[in-house]
């Protein structure tokens, strides 16, 4: 199991690096004077350190993290608060999501995802009676999620909020929550998200662009239109690796959340299905690991990581395909970005340790 899971991770990373070398070649040349800047930077500062963390955490007994769940969540929340302190936090395009400490820049919301999975797995995996208990189960769960949600809304980062809510609710359900309580929380979450969308014009515009991409094709609908052009141009077998035209300055965030559109353009429907297949393969391996876990904490943790990765991947691919509104979240382990890759590989390292113990 350990070897298969490790192989699934390496294959996905390798595929992502190959596609990044094509997707970012023009943008990297324009911005940095080197066509392979994104590839080198991703490999040296994200993948190599990430694999180091993967190996390190795969060797540490996963049960330690159950004992440290509360301090880890506390550190994640403190990091989230630092975002709003001018000395530490800074923003981009109207969103304040990054922290700079000792000349190291990172996105605290990515660390928060891992911390929350550890905390919820430890909380609900420690005592079955907590799941449906109002005082010791439901109420603390809602308090933590409300605080986390408020911090993400203030950034604002609704895409990450959707991922965090999905992961948290999945862990809650897998832990044995009653369908009645689960349905009530789902309804409340939908209402909250609806209100958050209605009170911000740019979120309403994203919904409008999703419902009718022809609205303002050079404005609010520009990214989704360019993405759909890329995907449509790819057809079944694609235009060929390295031959995308949409990456020539037409498609925004070409190495970020739009990289799936480049994959679909260059490799076609076959490449898009291959991408989905790689995530599903990793998902199946993780589910098998969860089923074989020795305790509830290990089981819930691996299931949480699984929902995190596959949920974020599906949300990204759906948005790029016009099936869901744009959220701005990256494609896990494929999109360019340091914090996301490092944290996901850390979580997968813990999952590998759980697999070792089975």
From TrEMBL:
Pathway: Cell wall biogenesis; peptidoglycan biosynthesis. Keywords: Cell cycle, Cell division, Cell membrane, Cell shape, Cell wall biogenesis/degradation, Glycosyltransferase, Membrane, Peptidoglycan synthesis, Transferase, Transmembrane, Transmembrane helix. GO terms for cellular component: cell division site; plasma membrane. InterPro entries: Cell_cycle_FtsW-rel_CS, FtsW, FtsW/RodA. GO terms for molecular function: lipid-linked peptidoglycan transporter activity; peptidoglycan glycosyltransferase activity. GO terms for biological process: cell division; cell wall organization; peptidoglycan biosynthetic process; regulation of cell shape. It holds the Pfam family FTSW_RODA_SPOVE. It is found in: Cell membrane. PROSITE patterns: FTSW_RODA_SPOVE (PS00428). Belongs to the SEDS family. FtsW subfamily. This is Probable peptidoglycan glycosyltransferase FtsW. It comes from Candidatus Yanofskybacteria bacterium RIFCSPHIGHO2_01_FULL_45_42. The lineage of its organism: Bacteria, Candidatus Yanofskyibacteriota.
